[in-house]
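Marked as duplicate of an earlier ticket. Keeping the data here for the record.
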Amino acid sequence: MDSLPACAEVLQSAAGLPATLDAAHRAFATLLAVLRHHQEDDETAFPAFVLAANAAANGRDWIADAPSLPASRSLPAGHADLLPDADIAEVAAQVTAVSCQLVRRLAALAAAAADPGDRSACLRAAGQASAICDLLGGAACR
């Protein structure tokens, strides 16, 4: 099972462009699953969670377009740990933490990427991760 802490750990330890793209793709997919699972938990948070889920899907798709993403990339295992016992504030905090980590790692990858397609994919995905942070009230992670 994927969990947000596991995604954060893999993202942190990934070395090199292909491995980090793979970890980012998997993290965005897990964020999407968690956000969709919790989007109806609190009616006041519903709009932010729906828009954040959309940003997670867009980030995943931008990473999928990166030329250096391995064709044999790892897909999320079966079902993600959807944080079933977490309240909406805890879910938002965990999602924001992983999203901020994505912003930092993807911005660094973009700065070092030789291929313009990788650079563009990383920057656009980082923008989507930043939008998730903004939507869920996280501190600026740029």
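See parent ticket for discussion. DSSP finds five helices and no strands in the chain.
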